[in-house]
Every structure is written in structure tokens, then in C-alpha cells.
Specification:
single chain, alpha/beta, Rossmann fold, 2 domains, 8-stranded mixed beta sheet, 8 strands, 18% strand
């Protein structure tokens, strides 16, 4: 189903509502196992973000607040007054804004490998500076070879996510990762479970520990061999946690 070019799917007809917020670049299909395990008892909504899956990307760059507004407006349109959230990575950014800033009535929250903390290490600063400097040197390259030179720089210095985006999506990606949301964690008021892989190098375990300290009613579960995609590595274990927590 589409709402203003924003694709979503609904499963189940339970009294309690679960909203699933996937990670950046993921879509509804990565949570199929979770949906099939929960749809008999809950009503579930899951989304394709603009630019992914079946949702088209608008002709402008976006911020994380644009994404959260998509979800907030959807919730209002559907007259959903209270609900649960399951979020992974980028989805945590949206959940943090919906709860910590917009104060929507979220009863319980599951965060899996959540993003939202912006850290600039010396290594990252140096890499960014070097990329920008080399990019400026394009004026020394013959015009017919400049695009190839810029493409090579992007392949060498850009992240995997960044390389796969068009120009507007790249600007959006930069807007999102530069937004530090840690000041909102203390306003997350609902019972929360943080689920993390100890080998998560995208959103390291220290981020989970920080969130655990700031979110008053929270518990942290770390899985020794789990990575950033721990929800795909330990689905049955995590589904049990979700069912027990939401019931």
C-alpha cells in the first residue's frame, strides 16, 4: 500500500500494534520471519523508506526529521494511539525522535543495533579531510578524465552505503549521519530492551552501553558472536525476547 509514495504493508489484526522500523537500505522483506511469528497476536506495520524497496525518493534531499515525520503522519492517519516499536540501526534514529522529541505514546521499545550517536574519531576526520582535499585537486585533472578520477575517489573513501546512492540520497545520508541524537535518549520514557551483537562494528557495543545508561527503564542484552545484523543471526532467540516483552 502507498501513502504519498511511502510504501507500507500491514499484517495481522491483533488489538496491539507493532511498528517495525528497519535499518537504512533494508526493507520490509528482511523482517519476514519476525512478522510471521508475531502477526497472529498483533497488528504489524512495516515500511519501505523513500528510495528503498517500493517507495520512491522525492526530488529533494531529506533529513532524519523528514523520515520521522513520514512515520508520525502515518500513525496519525491510521488513528494509532499507542503501539510498540521494533527498530534496527537507522530505525532507532526515527524511534528516538518519535519518543524523545514528539512524545508519541509508545508502550514498549526494542532497539537492535541502534544508531543515533555521532562520533568523529581522529581517523575518520583525517579520512574525510583527505577525501575533500583530493576532490579539490580535480581541477588539475584533464576534463575528460575528471569523472573517472572522482569515481575512483568515491570507491576508495566512501562507505558501502554511500557508494550505492544517487546524488540526492548521498546528501540525505550525510544529513542523517551528521545528526547526533544522544540528547534525546534521556527522554525515552517507555520500557526498552537493547539487543546488540558484541562484534557490531557499525554501531559498537559502547553505544548500547551509553543508551542503557541514559534510557532509565532499559535493559541491555549482548550476544557474543553477533554483528550489526544480529537480528538475522539470532532470529528465534530475539523473537522469544520480543514475545515475552510485548506480552
Amino acid at each position: 500500500m502507498n501513502t504519498n509514495n511511502f510504501y507500507y504493508e500491514k499484517y495481522g489484526n491483533g488489538e496491539k500494534v507493532i511498528i517495525i522500523l528497519p535499518g537504512w537500505g533494508d526493507n520490509r522483506k528482511t523482517f519476514d520471519l519476525y512478522i510471521n511469528s508475531l502477526k497472529d497476536k498483533f497488528t504489524i506495520y512495516i515500511f519501505d523508506y523513500p528510495g528503498f524497496g517500493k517507495s520512491t525518493f522525492p526530488n529533494k534531499e531529506l533529513t532524519i526529521y523528514d523520515y520521522s515525520n513520514y512515520i508520525k503522519n502515518f500513525i496519525k492517519e491510521k488513528n494509532i494511539f499507542s503501539f510498540y516499536i521494533i527498530c534496527h540501526s537507522f530505525g532507532c534514529r526515527i524511534a528516538t525522535i518519535l519518543i524523545g522529541k514528539d512524545r508519541l505514546n509508545v508502550e514498549r521499545l526494542i532497539i537492535i543495533g541502534g544508531a543515533g550517536i555521532r562520533r568523529k574519531s581522529l581517523k575518520r576526520i583525517f579520512k574525510t579531510y583527505k577525501y575533500k582535499l583530493l576532490k579539490k585537486l580535480k581541477v588539475l585533472i584533464p576534463k575528460k578524465r575528471r569523472q573517472k578520477y572522482l569515481n575512483n575517489l568515491l570507491m576508495k573513501y566512501g562507505s558501502t552505503d554511500y557508494k550505492n546512492l544517487n546524488n540526492l540520497q548521498r546528501k540525505t545520508f550525510i544529513n542523517i549521519i551528521n545528526e547526533d541524537l544522544r540528547n534525546l535518549f534521556k527522554y525515552i520514557y517507555c520500557p526498552t530492551i537493547l539487543i546488540w551483537g558484541e562484534k557490531d562494528y557499525e554501531t559498537p557495543l559502547k553505544d548500547a552501553k551509553y543508551m542503557n545508561r541514559k534510557i532509565k527503564d532499559s535493559a541491555l542484552i549482548s550476544l557474543k558472536k553477533g554483528t550489526h545484523f544480529v537480528y538475522l543471526e539470532y532470529p528465534f532467540y530475539i523473537i522469544k525476547i520480543i514475545i515475552n516483552f510485548f506480552n
